[in-house]
Structure formats: structure tokens, C-alpha cells
Sequence to fold (380 residues):
Amino acid sequence: MPESIWYNASMKPFKYGCVVTGETFCPRPDLQKRLATCVKDGQNVVLVGERRMGKTSLVYSVCNGLKRYRMMYVDLLNIRTVADFCNRVATAAAQLGKKESFVSRALSFMARLRPTLSVDPGNGMPVVSVDSRMAEDPSSMSDVMALIEKFSSDERMFVVFDEFQEVKKLDAGDQVLAMLRGKIQFLQDTCFVFSGSVRSDMVDIFTNPKSPFFKSAMTISVANIPDDEFAPFLIERFKTGNRIADRAFIDAVFDFTGRTTGDVQQLCAAVWNTTEKGSRLSTADIKPALEEIFEQESGPFELQTTRLTRYQFKVLVALAKLGGRNVYSSEFMSAAEVPSSGTATKALQRLVADGLVFVHDKEYRFFNPFLRAWLINKGY
Ligand SMILES: Nc1ncnc2c1ncn2[C@@H]1O[C@H](COP(=O)(O)OP(=O)(O)O)[C@@H](O)[C@H]1O
Ligand SMILES: [Mg+2]
Fold:
């Protein structure tokens, strides 16, 4: 029987696609210390990094390490309206673990928005929803901020706005940002952490002189975990899962994935899944692991690539095969079968806009290393 079936899910040595805590979290002492210091000092922070690098897991680890502080974690992913924003904030406040009577009293601070408190049948956690008509006006922000003020006056707390760039996408995004900034600057003792992806409006919100948040917080960048810290951690995780991995193998995993934390974990999870107990791992174990990943991901990959025009697809395949450094070389242009550099430029722009590739140091790179490998494997 494959080990993955009898191995309890919580015992799996590698996790991806979720926040990692406890033994599946590789310590990041420098970042954890810097963020914890900001929390204690009430210094606001912008946490930026590529997706899947570990921003959310980092804030959770800091929360776990600061026993005297509570974290109010507001996930702003996919908010569409000001009411959504208010709901997420109020729900995060209600989930701080306070008595129901305290929560109900606190909600009276936003009585104008007619909040209702209920319980999520899925996880038993409290959920707040406000009257959507009352909350469409950006000024309702002051009511939810009053709620944060109430909670932060009661005990030591820090507030995390995760995927903060989503605010900018709201119709009233700029107004909401201005209101938020106006309120936050009076909450001097409370640390606000604004977390988001580098490839988004995040950078603009904090660096554009016209933005209300211009230079309002200290930036902490979350890049990859240094190899010399991540490799021993992964070797140990393999050992826990009855596999023997050496540094050369881990380096091959790093090179393949481009070191994005979540991708490294995904590949290690697949290697673990597709090898036998007691195996000594080698680079030959990467191919079967990739096949497992292709099987899981082929649906989304097909969907992403069938939407493309012929030229866009050809350019994407050429990027997979030849890399993205010399996209106007004759070799690249003929591989991509594009008639002119203008056509190549247009196709590249669309691939960037679609979030399939991004530009780093004048090089086009895949967001997802497994998509690249999948294209090559398909023999396009
Ligand atoms: N410190 C860490 N140690 C081990 N794996 C990590 C760590 N941080 C992130 N990961 C891996 O990356 C994935 C994405 O982490 P997450 O915190 O959600 O990133 P982000 O918020 O930057 O998108 C996790 O599911 C996990 O596989
Ligand atoms: Mg995150």
C-alpha cells in the first residue's frame, strides 16, 4: 500500500498551499525577530515578497512567538466591495477569542452598519456580516476602525491586513485607502502589518508620493529562505518521513523550483509520495515526482494555455525551452515562429498580464516552475 494512504495527513512531512506552523515551518530567525520587534514597538510594516514565499506563515510564526500579543488577522483576498472589507475586519475581531458578550458590546461601535453575529457551520468560528447597503459608503471604514480601536485598547494586539493590495481594486479603493490611513495614524501603539505580493499594487500604495500610505511603514522583504538554512530543514523532514536526502539532492530541488518556498515544498511532497520507505533519494526521483504533479495540475495548466492565441502559446513554449533572457534573438524568434519582434512583444505582454510569467532583471520567468516543466514534458 502506498505510504501516503496510511500516513495520517497531519504527519506528512511536507505541506504546501496552506499556512505552515510548528515543525513544518522552517525557522526564519532574522525575519521573525525584525517583525516581532516592529510589533512590540508599534511600528507599522509592509511585508512584500513573491507569492508562496512564506509571508502569511511568517506572520503566524511571529504571533505564536509573542505570547502577550494577539494577532487580528484580516484576509482581504478577493474582496469586491467596501462591505466585504468591513465583514472581514469585523469577523477577524470576533475571532480573537473574546467572550461573546464582549464581542457583542464591541459590535455596538459599528451599530450603524447593522452587524449580525453568527457561527460558521463549517468550523464553528464566529462570523460577522454587515448590512451591505449601509456599508457601501467608504465612510463606514471609520466604524470598523472604531472596532479595532476598541479591541486594541483592551489588550496588546497587532493587526495584519493580508493581501492588502486588494483594497486598491475596489471601486472606491483610493477613498478607502485615504480613510484607512487617516484612522491608522491615530492608533500609534498598535502595529499594522500590510502584507502582499510584490507583483501587485502593493508597491505603488507605499511608494507612490500621491498615495496616502506613501512612506507610512517600514518595508520587510520576504525572499527565499537561504539554502544553508532550508536544506538542513528539508533533509530533516525527509528523515522524519523515512527518506534519506543529501545536500546534492536538495540542491537539485532548489535549482528546479527556483527556490520559491511553496514550490520547494510541493516538489518535496511529491518526491516523498512517490518513493518507498527507506529510499536514499537521488535526482532520478525528481521525474516520477513531477509526473505526479503534472497529473494533479494538468487541469489548470490546460485551462491556462488553451486560452492563449497561437503566437502567445508558441512564445510561452519557447520561454519554457530556451529561457527568457534573449527573447529577441533569432533562435528564440524562430523557435516561437513569430514573424516580427512586435508580435513577440505583444505575446509577451499578454503572458505577463495573464500572470503566467513575470520580468525579473530583464529576464522573463515562469511564475510556476511546474508549468514550464509540463510544457517541455508535453513535447510541444
Ligand atoms: N518558513 C517556512 N518553512 C517551510 N515552508 C514554508 C515556509 N514558509 C512558507 N512555506 C511554504 O510555502 C507555502 C506558501 O506559504 P505562505 O505563507 O502561504 O506564502 P505567501 O503568504 O507568501 O503566499 C506554504 O504552504 C509552505 O509550503
Ligand atoms: Mg499569503
